[in-house]
């Protein structure tokens, strides 16, 4: 089953689950550059970049990335490339709700945020590749 996907996608999920969001961007950027019409990859990229922005205190950038990631990934609901897109969308909604109203916060304040983190796994049974 997993042979259907680029290795970078599988590594992206691993790095995401380890909260290595900068590395997530690097992993997907190359395959996204080859498939720029793939809004699924773009949505995942933007989710990871949003989390990286958050880690740096850039709330405005995080909000923008989460909002756009949600917009791109909606078309792939409920599931795509054996990932529960509905679960990702729900997570993005939680992220948006948890962001403070300010546009930027000091770096040392970021870890004080009660921010949701989640891991994602590929679905191994009942696969459907719905979406665009």
TrEMBL record:
Top-level division of the source organism's lineage: Bacteria
Pfam family, one: DUF309
Protein name in the entry: DUF309 domain-containing protein
Organism of provenance: Brevibacillus laterosporus LMG 15441
